[in-house]
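agent> step 3/5: call structure_predict on target 'Acetyltransferase (GNAT) family protein' (Haloactinopolyspora alba).
agent> reason: downstream docking stage needs a structural representation; sequence fetched in step 2, passing through unchanged.
tool.input:
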Amino acid sequence: MTGPTVVRAYRDGDDDALYDICLRTGDSGGDASGQFADPRLLGEIYVGPYLRFEPELAFVADDGDVAGYVLGARDTRQFEATCEQLWWPQLRRRYPEGTYPEGSRDARLLGLVHRPPVADADVVATYPSHLHIDLLPRTQGRGMGRALMERLLEALAATGSPGVHLGVGIGNERAVGFYRRLGFTVERELPSALIMARTVP
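tool.output (status=ok):
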């Protein structure tokens, strides 16, 4: 049973629910359950470090159960360095290279643990913060995505961030349209993704 949806700050105890949402939206917004040998690995990359290092920039859509989230990092370069020092090493020990068959979804995901991507220098120079947002289908189309984004933008503004960027699959037209309506523009076009950004009010 779900009730009115509210946006609230992340709190201890939300972690498992956020990991689950990450998996259930991990196929370009669709459900990736059953697609990975370890269902927590996706969350260890896209959720865990944000909750650990920048919990004050984590917000949740709650309709009686956790139904979505937005996660941010104030300084992408500092966040990358912190993860390299304190987050990726433990995952590399837990998931050594070769753990999964070459070419599998898990192996490709594990490549992000052993060789984390580095944000584009030109993008970071103007838009140093970044974010991830995911909503379960039952919460979509009800204004909660916008509410989550506005809450994060307010929090980033309070930190003095001048701008924020994100990555989105190039074929995820619904998400691209959503970001455009929120004032994001395309800064980089990669083979399979767009880097979009906007200033922080």
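agent> step 4/5: record observation. The chain has one domain: 6-199.
agent> proceeding.
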